[in-house]
TrEMBL record:
Any one of the GO CC terms: proton-transporting V-type ATPase, V0 domain
Domain (V-ATPase proteolipid subunit C-like) ranges: 24-82, 108-166
Gene assigned in the entry: LOC109711429
Function: Proton-conducting pore forming subunit of the membrane integral V0 complex of vacuolar ATPase. V-ATPase is responsible for acidifying a variety of intracellular compartments in eukaryotic cells.
Protein name (database record): V-type proton ATPase subunit c''2-like
Assembly, per entry: V-ATPase is a heteromultimeric enzyme composed of a peripheral catalytic V1 complex attached to an integral membrane V0 proton pore complex.
Subcellular location as annotated: Membrane
């Protein structure tokens, strides 16, 4: 066995599983909020620009901003769920395989949810931007593009579902 793989495996087993769990929870909420903010930025700037031509679009196109905000809420919900998965174990069982599995499960769940919501926020933001610009030109396009935006926001829910399924593996030793 090479010393490179040995040092990596040693590092991954010697770092506390609570550290991995905490980082996963932080990524879940932090990257989800980043995705929501990025989507709101994209949608909001187009909405304000298009509202100059057609002020009537402002109120009904705020739904695109709400879809982006839902992405942040998904991250908060999963972070709360992951936080409830943390359990205290005796110091002698910190590096037990079940503890490591639980820490890695929470970590990977947070990664999946965070990055799924980052991409979802971008997707919803771009579609929301297109919705605002299209609605300013032709009001008949609003509902058609809104349906596409709903499908885009479902991507975030898929990330939440996968994250919850993955977090079910987080069982700490008794």
């Amino acid at each position: 066995m090479s010393s490179g793989s040995s040092s990596w495996s040693r590092a991954l087993t010697q770092i506390s599983p609570y550290t991995f769990a905490a980082v996963g929870i932080a990524i879940s909420i932090g990257v989800s909020v980043l995705g929501a903010a990025w989507g709101i930025f994209i949608t909001g700037s187009s909405l304000i620009g298009a509202a100059i031509k057609a002020p009537r679009i402002t109120s009904k196109n705020l739904i695109s901003v709400i879809f982006c905000e839902a992405v942040a809420i998904y991250g908060v919900i999963v972070a709360i769920i992951l936080q409830t998965k943390l359990e205290s174990v005796p110091k002698s069982l910190i590096h037990h395989p079940d503890s490591l599995r639980a820490g890695y499960a929470i970590f990977s769940s947070g990664i999946i949810v965070g990055f799924a919501n980052l991409v979802c926020g971008l997707c919803v933001g771009i579609i929301g931007s297109s919705c605002a610009l299209s609605d300013a030109q032709n009001s008949n396009l609003f509902v058609k593009i809104l349906v596409i935006e709903i499908f885009g926001s479902a991507l975030g829910l898929f990330g939440v579902i996968v994250g919850i399924i993955m977090s079910a593996q987080a069982t700490w030793p008794a």
